[in-house]
Structures are given as structure tokens and as C-alpha cells.
Amino acid sequence: MKAQPLNVFTRFLCATLIGVSSFSTLPASAVENASPSERTLPATAETAVKAAILNHPRLILKNGAHFVVLDEAGLMPAGTSYGYGLYKDDTRYLSSFDLSLNGANPVLLSASTEEGYAGKFIYGNAADAASGTPEQQIMLQRDIVIRDGVSEKITLTNFGNQPVTLNLAIAYANDFADMFEVRGIGRKRRGQLQSVEQSLPNGSLISYMGLDNKLMTTRLLFSETPAKRQGDRVEFQYKLNGQQSKTIEMNISTAGLGEPFAPNPTIVSYDEGKVQADNAYSDWRSSTASVTTSNTEFNKLLERSIRDIYILRQPTPRGICLAAGTPWFAVAFGRDQEITAMETMMFVPELAKDVINILAEYQGTKSDDFTEEKPGRIMHELRLGEMARMREIAFVPYYGTVDATPLWLVLLARYYQQTGDLEFVRKHWPRVESALAYLDSEMQTGYLRYGGKPGAALSNQGWKDSGDSVMYGDGKLAKAPIALCEVQGYLYFAWSEVAHLAELLGHKDRADQLLLKAQKLQQNFRKDFWMKEKNCVALALDGDGRQCDVISSNMGHLLSTNILDKSESNAVADALLRDDMFSQWGVRTLSSKEVAFNPMSYHNGSVWPHDNAMAIEGLCRIGRAADARRVIGGLFETAKYRPDMRLPELFCGFSRTFSDKPVWYPVSCAPQAWAAGSVLQMVSGCLGLVADAGKQTLSVVRPALPPWMERVDVKGIRVGDGSCDLHFELVDGKTKCSVVSHTKNLKLDIQE
């Protein structure tokens, strides 16, 4: 194994702190594109924005447009650079929130955030010599729920037998920092932070006037008038008898871009907010299929993943999207949403519908060099913060992605396979034709490529979009423009499946054209990308048609696209499961035999669950279920080492012989959409579920449960207008499927 020197990794990590989706650095022109109307940021400790240190432990609660980033004690301490705060639409609406009891910080006893949108924190008091109160006589309990803002209930309980006098102080502050500022991008100028306004008898307002003359405001509202208020601090004073409790309610609300608060504000209690949040989750959950296994730990992973998918849903100006991940990417992406929607299609098809719609709404309509928008192109990333609104950054949205457009077509085709909703396809057909025209315009060399244009915000535009992720066998970076192997597979599958949709809609000539394109692409791909010496697919072709001759995980995405023949698919599967690629925790992004391998890198040796899940689906499709089970087992073991029982965005690619537990990547997002979705894709893969709504059929093809999962029950799978409940059981090493119930209009084809 050839590891890169530590100083190289350190420089790379520093670059990640100020990057975009892939953590690549922005061009100087994007930062320096300042408006003459900008005002200078006041140089005070209260308003200075510091670079974030992203690898600090944190807790996250999210629901809808809002999320909070908390320390392990459930607070937002002032004076740190860890990104703590309350966020909405890429803006930090509260930068600190701290509690003290009789002048001392309470001591955390318990923290629970398993519900995703709600949390409970229990503290004991520090000893108070002045009043003679011993430690942990006073319990402070905080119940928090995120809905349209934050509702919090604070309960103080005196477990002693003598009366005590308590002073509860709450300190808070704000900087209204753009998310890119929080992550370390400096700004020469920014808007004006207003003074804290205390016109409300039981609350405070903090406001900021942006450079675009848009006012953003945070409102704190308490269920009673504070005994004392001073700037950004309020105090409540109570006398509690022995065994007595006192409760105070608090709401934190946001108003962005000049939208007003409702007059005469009233408190929404925690209990009321929690019921609203629980009911909303239950309603959404009832619309999805349910999966229960005999393995209680895997059930926890499943439930955590489904909850993560739910809390990552959020509004945009043009509809509901699925955020890529918190805390740094709670925004709409193209590729991330599409892949997550495909991962979850069998169990949550409505998510795919939302994703198709929102990406269609933001589909390119004009040419713009700054954002790389082109007619028909599907976006990469949408930011809604002040820096995007001022075009200081290109993500307004930014369209620099090579794979989001073919993946959108793939997603639409798969959505039809699951639902049979041909009218939905018909509605989007003009968008389909626009996307196809864009792809044709990018195919002058015969392959879908990216790169070679100066000033782009991302130097690499595939899913491995860090600046050093595409290279030759000697470790040198590839010469643009670059044709990635998996992108050609996506395009082949898109053309093939959209041809079927075209025929259903009566466009026979269009269907024939697309099939011919797909056939030609397949022939050329198998000739140009196959590495004879290594007997697998090259990562990419460079601008001269030279192979980027490294063994990478990208080829695993090809297994479910049908662009390879049977022998080639098996050769790829063999390569993925060798020790240089499979770490026993998961399949690495790059072979440990390659010069550029670094298990601590972002894309050159790490392990990504979504990358593995796509390979798992392909392995199951080509009849390599035993290999798929090995990979699933490694990822499941990884999740069990996480205290939150969830799969992270990525982790380091060290083998089990090097470390007896997974090594975490320092800036990995969690929750993260396609990591959460990967769990559902693993389940549908090993169950062998294949939908064909056009034929009103659900096939169960060679199901293969891992040995640690003896039974699986799936309820409410929907294919077309039909639905079914299935039971899977491992009997003498073989997986048997039985039909518990199904509607008459759904046929079951079980191929054990």
C-alpha cells in the first residue's frame, strides 16, 4: 500500500473546508465578484465569521426547511468555529444558544436525537456553594422539536426537600452567515447586522439587512416575560419548593427575504409541535412500504435510514426537494437526489416523483458561462443564501455536472417501471426532448465528456468531483475533456429505456433513433474502455482518447446498466471483490494497488455506501448474490460501530487487517441522503425485487438473504395500481419467498 504523506492529506483536508459539493475550491473570480452596494462587515467579535472546523462532534435535528447543529450537550456555544447554529435556506439564523443555571453550566446526563426531528436532553446542576445546593439536586430537561422553526420546553425540577432559588439564563447571538461563510469562504463585504430588538414583552428580534436589501430576522419568543433582559441575554428567576417543577416554553422562528412575521405572536408549545411533527411523519410513513427483518440491529439501521430520508425533504421556491446531507449540503442537488430516488424507488416511489418534478423545474433554459447552464441541462446544485443571490458563487443554481442529465432520464424511466404512470411521462416529454437535445450537443467525440474550460467551479463533474479523483496509472491527473466510464453506462441505459417510453407515447421513429444511438455507444464503449491487461473497465478516457488505466469503483455502476456483456460483467464483479478493492468493510473507490491510492482521501481509496449499493444492485442483477451479501455484511458491520446507527456519507478505506473497526472520515455528512438510501437499495437488491408496471408484474429474481437476516417481511409494495405483501425466509441456506397478500391486478413472478 502506497499512502500519501500526511502533509498532502492535511493540505487536501484544508481544501475540503472551503469547497463545494466535492469540497473543491472556488475560483477567485467567484469570491471577488462584489457588488458596489456591499457594506463592510463590522470588525467585532460578535459579527466576525470564522472558518468552520468540520470534524468536531455534533448533533443534528432537522425537519422541513430548518435544521440545528448542536454540540454533544445539545447547545450552540459562542466563540467556536464548529458551525453550530439554526439554519434555513443556506443561512445561519442563530449562531449561539447557551444555558446557565445559577451562573454555572448544567452537566449533561443524557442526550437523545434518534427521532431526527426531535430531541431530549437531561442535565444536572453543578454544586452551588452560595445557596448550598448540592450537585445534581436540580434536573434541567429540554425537549426540542423542529417544525416550522423550533419549539422547546425547559423543565426545572427540584428533587431536594428544601426550597431553592434558581436563575435560568439564556444567551444567544446571530451572524446571519451564509453557509459558505460558515464553511470558510471569506467575503470582502457583507450586509448589516441590526441591534437586538426587544419590542416584544416576552421575546426578542435579531435582524440582518443583506447586500440585496433583503431583511432576515430571527425571533425568540418565551411563554412568560423574562425577569431580566440585556442585549442578547435573558434571565428567569424561580423559587422551587422540594419536589416541585417549573416549565417554560420557547419558540425560535425565522423570517427570510423580507417576509413578515405574523402579528400578535403566540407560543406553539412543545407538546403541540411534537404532535404536529409526529403526525406529519406518520402520514408520510404510511405512504411508503414497510420492511421488517429478524435482525433487530438491522431494523434500527432501516428505521434510521427512512427517518433520514424523511427529514432531508425540504421546500425550494419551485417545489419539494431532497437535501443532499447535513449540515453543509442541506440544499437541492441533481445527482444526489436522482441516485437516492433510485435507491428508494421500490419502497418510496413518491420521492422519485418529487425529484423528477423539482429537477424539471430547474432544467436549463439558456446559456450562462458563469453557472454553466445550457438549455436542457439538469442542474448540479442550488444554493439560496445571500452569496448565491448576489452571484458571488455560481450555485444559483450551478449546472456543472456531467451525469445529472442522463440520470434524470434514467430516473424517469425507472419511475414509469415502478408506477406505470404514462401521463406523468407525457407531461414531462418536452423536458425529455430538451434533455436529449442537450446530450446530443455534448457528444461530438462520441462520448459524454466534461472539462477543459477555464474558470469552472468544479474541475471534475462526475460523482467523484474532487480535483484529484481522475488519474492515470502513474498517478498523474487526467487530461480534460474527460469521459467517465459510469456516465456512458448511465447514458446507454437512458437512451435504451427512454426509447421504450417514446414508443409507448407513439414516437416510433424517435425510439428507433435512440436505440441506434445506444447500440453504437455500447459497441464503442466495450472496445475503448476495456483494459485487456487488467481485465476490467478503465475509470475514464482523457481528451486524447487515452485510458485512465486504474481500477476504480466507478465500473461497479455499470453492472445494472446492461452496457457490458455477461463475461465482462463477471470480470468487473471479480475485480470489485478482490482484496485490493474490497476492504471487508466495503468496496473502495480506488484499488490499493494504484499509485494514487490513499485510504484517507475523499475519493481515492475511501468507501462510500451509495457507491457500494449501486454495485450491490448490479451484483444481484448478474447473479452474484453471494458477493452482494459480502458487501452488505461489511456495510452493516460498519453501521453497528456508529453511535447513531446510520451509515455515513463515506469512511476511510483501511482494511480489517489494518484496523479492527472502521476509521471515520473527518468531514463526512450525516445524515446524508444517498447513504441513507443505500440501505433500502441493499434490501431490494438481496430480495431480487424487479418492477414492471407496464405488465403489472413484480418479479422476485433469485432472492438471497444474508445468514444474519433469516426473515424479512415487506408490506405495501406498490407496482402500478397494484400492491402486495411478501415474506422471505432463509431455509437450509436458500431464500424462499411467499406471497402474504396481493391485489388481483398485480402478478407475482417468483424465480427462486
Describe this structure in words.
The chain has 752 residues and is of the alpha+beta class. The chain folds into two domains: 34-280, Beta-galactosidase, Chain A, domain 5, CATH 2.70.98.40; 287-687, Glycosyltransferase (Alpha/alpha barrel), CATH 1.50.10. Helices cover 28% and strands 24% of the residues. An eight-stranded antiparallel sheet has the order 6-7-8-9-16-13-12-11, with helices on one face. β29 and β30 form a beta hairpin. α5 crosses α16, α9 (404-419) packs across α11 (485-504) and α11 (485-504) runs antiparallel to α12 (508-528). The chain is globular, with a radius of gyration of 27 Å.
Identify the notable features of this structure and list them briefly.
four-stranded antiparallel sheet; Glycosyltransferase; 16 helices; disordered N terminus; eight-stranded antiparallel sheet; single chain; alpha+beta; Beta-galactosidase, Chain A, domain 5; about 750 residues; 2 domains
How are the elements arranged and paired?
Blueprint (H helix, E strand, L loop, with lengths): L5 H11 L11 H5 L26 E5 L2 E5 L14 E4 L2 E4 L1 E6 L5 E6 L5 E7 L13 E10 L1 E10 L5 E10 L5 H4 L9 E2 L9 E7 L5 E8 L5 E3 L2 E8 L4 E11 L14 H17 L3 E4 L2 H16 L1 E4 L2 E7 L3 E5 L1 H9 L5 H13 L19 E2 L3 H4 L14 H16 L2 H20 L41 E2 H20 L3 H21 L1 E2 L4 E2 L2 E2 L5 E2 L17 H12 L31 H13 L3 H16 L32 H15 L1 E4 L4 E5 L9 E9 L2 E10 L2 E9 L4 E5 L1
Parallel strand pairs: 28-32
Antiparallel strand pairs: 1-2, 2-3, 3-4, 5-10, 6-7, 7-8, 8-9, 9-16, 10-15, 11-12, 12-13, 13-16, 14-15, 17-29, 18-19, 19-20, 20-21, 22-25, 23-24, 25-26, 27-28, 29-30, 30-31
Helix pairs in contact: 5-16, 6-7, 6-9, 6-16, 7-9, 9-10, 9-11, 11-12, 14-15, 14-16
